[in-house]
């Protein structure tokens, strides 16, 4: 007969909901000051920006053509499935940590570590991607007034060319504008969440006005001939670990086509995911966080599709600029004054995206440090006066500055998406597990049509993951391998849940770490 004191394997030990809620009541917690409008603005601030002002150019030019419109539809539908699952968990577990916390409560410690480590990759690389896009638009604004950075300080030392399938030297040393904006955002984030949210809300208003201007003004310059051929790279673009299953590939063996385009621009949607990392700072998280997640996603999906339709109608897809496609489209159509206005709005819009992306990563670190999986003195310390995780914010700022300063946009864009999609798959699976294991748990917001919605979320996210180049899987594998080394060397032995289970079991567990 099994010993009742024997605890389950640490790897699959789940953190009780009661324990999560109790931790959030302590002194080392974040300030609850965000309402539904601010949370929605944070979501829109993260979603609308780089997805319109940066990724549309690269995705239409190299991957999907005008069919990018449908790529956004596919990615938006996929996100809706994941968003409904996120909303259910956010209402159940109103503490920091996002999908990491959800995985700990449902799948166990090892899956939680994988989820948290994956989220750190997602937020760091996506922040770097946005910083590179900001640099391009900022330089466009400066050029209008006759100012220029030295050429060696304007971009990454390398650039990826799809036709060649490799990296080519640019002659530059570092993307200095990207490094500088990262440093500024780090200072703002350390100062406080109220200041960050207010700054973001102001920029979101400017950004939405600019997006609506692009849609309305650009509609008068659409030439339907530019939409033909509508899908020059095909309708699919599926591969499995680099082996083509359906569709075409570019010179580097990367899949191209409408579905491949959805996988590439999926980066543009990670804003609703970041809303859930601020659950602990929401005034009424059970109600406000689901509102923020779903509202921001729906609004932004509609705007994305409209902007892509306008851009690919104004300029042939193969002539779109990769760095600043929106402003370039208006310049091409003889509207230089609009180009300057849009470039300025692009700078403001992308700034808010960078702010929210860099705001999210430290919250995941905070949750992991509270659980003992990372050193608390570094990653879990909240500033006594500012009430922000200032040390982890500083470390993330350094990482983002290095990535954005030295890596090209194309490489960053691919790496971001696979981490995001993996996070969505785990969250959708966790909803199914939680419904079965804890049907009695209070759910202020319930994901509809379970198990259909979570299963569709898993399948569609999986499909887009396999539409990404094989190199992304290798990079993700390398990042997760590094994470496992840290977990087994430090996190496993310092886990708060592990130590508590050892205490309860009377140290009868044969695991020497007890």
Can you put this structure into words, describing what you see?
It contains 20 helices and 6 strands. It has a two-stranded antiparallel ribbon with strand order 1-2. The protein has helices spanning 17-23, 36-47, 50-53, 55-64, 68-92, 99-106, 109-144, 176-191, 193-219, 258-265, 271-275, 285-314, 325-332, 336-370, 376-379, 390-406, 409-437, 452-465, 470-494, 496-504; strands spanning 158-161, 166-169, 238-240, 243-246, 248-249, 255-256. Helix 6 packs antiparallel against helix 7. The chain has 514 residues and is mostly helical. It starts with 16 loop residues before the first helix and ends in a 10-residue tail after the last helix. It is globular, with a radius of gyration of 22 Å. The chain has a single domain (22-468), classed as Up-down Bundle (Amino acid/polyamine transporter I), CATH 1.20.1740.
Report a brief summary of the structure.
The protein is mostly helical and 514 residues long. It has helices at residues 17-23, 36-47, 50-53, 55-64, 68-92, 99-106, 109-144, 176-191, 193-219, 258-265, 271-275, 285-314, 325-332, 336-370, 376-379, 390-406, 409-437, 452-465, 470-494, 496-504, and strands spanning 158-161, 166-169, 238-240, 243-246, 248-249, 255-256.
């Amino acid at each position: 007969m099994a010993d009742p004191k024997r605890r389950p394997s640490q790897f699959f030990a789940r953190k009780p909901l009661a324990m999560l809620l109790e931790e959030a009541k302590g002194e080392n917690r974040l300030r609850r000051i965000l309402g539904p409008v601010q949370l929605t603005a944070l979501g829109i601030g993260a979603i609308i920006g780089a997805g319109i002002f940066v990724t549309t150019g690269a995705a239409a030019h190299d991957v999907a053509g005008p069919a990018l419109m449908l790529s956004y539809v596919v990615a938006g539908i996929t996100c809706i499935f994941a968003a409904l699952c996120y909303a259910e968990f956010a209402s159940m577990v109103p503490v920091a940590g996002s999908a990491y916390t959800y995985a700990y409560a449902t799948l166990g410690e090892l899956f939680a570590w994988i989820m948290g480590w994956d989220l750190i990759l997602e937020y760091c690389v996506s922040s770097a991607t946005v910083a590179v896009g900001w640099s391009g638009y900022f330089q466009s604004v400066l050029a209008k007034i006759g100012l220029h950075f030295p050429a060696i300080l304007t971009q990454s030392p390398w650039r990826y060319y799809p036709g060649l399938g490799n990296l080519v030297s640019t002659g530059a040393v570092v993307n200095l504008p990207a490094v500088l904006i990262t440093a500024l955002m780090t200072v703002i984030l350390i100062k406080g969440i109220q200041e960050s949210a207010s700054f973001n809300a102001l920029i979101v208003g400017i950004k939405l006005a600019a997006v609506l201007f692009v849609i309305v003004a650009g509609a008068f310059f659409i030439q339907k001939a530019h939409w033909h051929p509508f899908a020059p790279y095909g309708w699919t673009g599926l591969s499995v670990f680099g082996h083509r299953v359906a569709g075409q590939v570019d010179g580097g063996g990367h899949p191209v086509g409408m579905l491949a385009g959805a996988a590439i621009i999926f980066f543009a949607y990670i804003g609703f995911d970041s809303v859930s990392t601020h659950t602990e700072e929401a005034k009424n998280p059970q109600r406000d966080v689901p509102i923020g997640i779903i509202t921001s996603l729906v609004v932004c999906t509609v705007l994305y599709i409209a902007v892509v339709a306008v851009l690919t109608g104004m300029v042939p897809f193969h002539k779109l600029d990769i760095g600043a496609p929106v402003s370039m489209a208006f310049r091409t159509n003889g509207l230089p004054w609009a180009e300057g206005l849009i470039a300025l709005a692009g700078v403001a819009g992308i700034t808010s995206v960078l702010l929210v992306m860099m705001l999210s990563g430290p919250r995941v670190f905070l949750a992991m440090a509270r659980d003992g999986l990372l050193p608390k003195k570094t990653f879990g310390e909240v500033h006594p006066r500012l009430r922000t995780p200032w040390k982890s914010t500083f470390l993330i700022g350094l990482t983002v500055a290095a990535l954005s300063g030295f890596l090209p946009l194309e490489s960053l864009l691919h790496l971001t998406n696979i981490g995001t999609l993996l996070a969505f798959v785990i969250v959708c699976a966790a909803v199914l597990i939680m419904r079965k294991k804890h049907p009695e748990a209070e759910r202020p917001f319930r994901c509809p049509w379970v198990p259909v919605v979570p299963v569709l979320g898993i399948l569609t996210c999986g499909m887009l993951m396999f539409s990404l180049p094989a190199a992304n899987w290798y990079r993700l594998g390398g990042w997760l391998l590094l994470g496992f080394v840290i977990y087994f060397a430090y996190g496993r032995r310092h886990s708060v849940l592990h130590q508590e289970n050892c205490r309860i079991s009377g140290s009868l567990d044969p695991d020497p770490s007890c």
